[in-house]
């Protein structure tokens, strides 16, 4: 952070960080956002915005017609947020304060993140979601390599290993998931969004699938351990998942999706009991042991 902020109090730095997060990743901020988030008066919110403009001239401008502060073209960040902190703020709505480097009170470690998106690319995507706008991207796919696409993003999704953006793909004319770390050169596209490109037309996203998970009948000698670990009731765990995310969820938890619970891996602690619920889900290539030919007619 710039040395000019050294004389600011921690609450002031928290509010400046919040201003930057809103502007960088949503593209706008109002005074109302500040005094709603921090319970401050309108005059104090105005001072914070003025302070941010003074410290980072050229980062934000004021749209007098909409009465909102907006991200400027030559924006450059003042705070050094990690992708994990940004996603925490975007998805959970807390942790808005300035990133700190204090040691934790007890030893805490997490699995290393090895697939992180570029934050400026992410900021274009999140602003497009917020504005309901289309963007043009360069995308590196495993099958087709590098391609140029126009997409209409509307949601972020975490599959447990990496982040995706759910969007309508104008190249294939269907809704798809795009790995954020494979997206580059994102920029806005002028023009309206067609009706078929809107989120309410994404059948896989709007359909909710109910999964019934039980301890694996063959692999678990002590099923009560699995029941306790997953908080099962009457020996089963029922969870509801968007159809578009079902494959990711089953793969993340190594859920055996064979009709006869035939997977023998020690990592398969769970079995999907109500396999018929998967009918019509499109990303089942990710589901452990799933084969379309095993479907009962």
Written account of the structure:
This protein is an alpha+beta fold. The chain folds into three domains: 7-80, Arc Repressor Mutant, subunit A (Orthogonal Bundle), CATH 1.10.10.10; 119-201, SH3 type barrels; 207-294, no CATH class. It is built from eight helices and twelve strands. Strands 7-6-5-4-8 form a five-stranded antiparallel beta sheet. Strand 2 and strand 3 (68-71) form a beta hairpin. Helix 1 (10-26) packs across helix 3. The longest helix has 17 residues, at 10-26. It is globular.
**Overall outline:** globular
The spatial strand order of the largest sheet comes to 7-6-5-4-8
Count of helices?
A: 8
The largest sheet is: 5 strands, antiparallel
Helical amount: 25-40%
Whole-number average pLDDT? 90
Number of strands: 12
Would you tell me the structural class of the helices and strands? alpha+beta
**Approximately how much beta-strand content do the residues carry?**
15-25%
This entry's quaternary arrangement is single chain
The SSE order reads HEHHEEHHEEEEEHEHEHEE
End-to-end separation: 63 Å
Which radius of gyration do the C-alpha atoms yield?
23 Å
> Residue ranges: pLDDT <50 for 5 or more in a row?
none
Number of domains: 3
Layout of secondary structure:
Elements (H helix, E strand, L loop, with lengths): L9 H17 L1 E2 L1 H8 L3 H14 L4 E4 L4 E4 L11 H10 L26 H13 L2 E8 L3 E14 L4 E7 L4 E6 L3 E7 L13 H4 L1 E8 L7 H7 L7 E6 H10 L2 E2 L13 E3 L25
Parallel strand pairs: 11-12
Antiparallel strand pairs: 1-3, 2-3, 4-5, 4-8, 5-6, 6-7, 9-10, 9-12
Helix pairs in contact: 1-3, 2-3
């Amino acid at each position: 952070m710039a040395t000019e902020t050294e004389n600011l109090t921690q609450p002031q730095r928290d509010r400046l960080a919040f201003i930057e997060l809103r502007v960088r990743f949503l593209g706008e901020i109002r005074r109302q956002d500040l005094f709603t988030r921090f319970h401050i008066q309108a005059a104090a919110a105005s001072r914070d915005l003025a302070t941010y403009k003074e410290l980072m001239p050229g980062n934000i401008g004021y749209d007098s017609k909409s009465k909102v502060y907006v991200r400027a073209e030559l924006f450059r960040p003042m705070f050094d947020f990690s992708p994990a902190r940004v996603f925490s703020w975007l998805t959970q709505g807390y942790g808005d304060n300035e990133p700190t480097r204090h040691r934790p009170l007890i030893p805490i470690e997490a699995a290393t993140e090895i697939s992180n998106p570029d934050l400026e690319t992410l900021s274009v995507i999140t602003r497009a979601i917020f504005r309901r706008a289309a963007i043009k991207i360069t995308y590196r796919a495993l099958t087709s390599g590098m391609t140029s696409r126009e997409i209409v993003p509307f949601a972020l999704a975490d599959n447990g290993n990496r982040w995706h953006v759910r969007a309508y793909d104008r190249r294939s004319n269907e809704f798809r998931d795009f790995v954020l770390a494979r997206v580059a050169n994102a920029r806005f596209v002028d023009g309206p969004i067609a009706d078929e490109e809107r989120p309410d037309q994404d059948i896989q996203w709007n359909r909710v699938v109910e999964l019934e998970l039980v301890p694996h009948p063959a692999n678990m000698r002590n099923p009560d351990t699995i029941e306790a670990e997953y908080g099962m009731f009457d020996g089963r765990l029922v969870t509801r998942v968007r159809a578009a995310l079902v494959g990711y969820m089953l793969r993340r938890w190594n859920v055996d999706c064979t009709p006869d619970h035939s997977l023998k891996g020690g990592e398969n602690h769970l079995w999907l009991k109500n396999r018929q619920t998967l009918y019509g889900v499109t990303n089942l290539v990710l589901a452990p042991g799933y084969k379309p030919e095993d479907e009962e007619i």
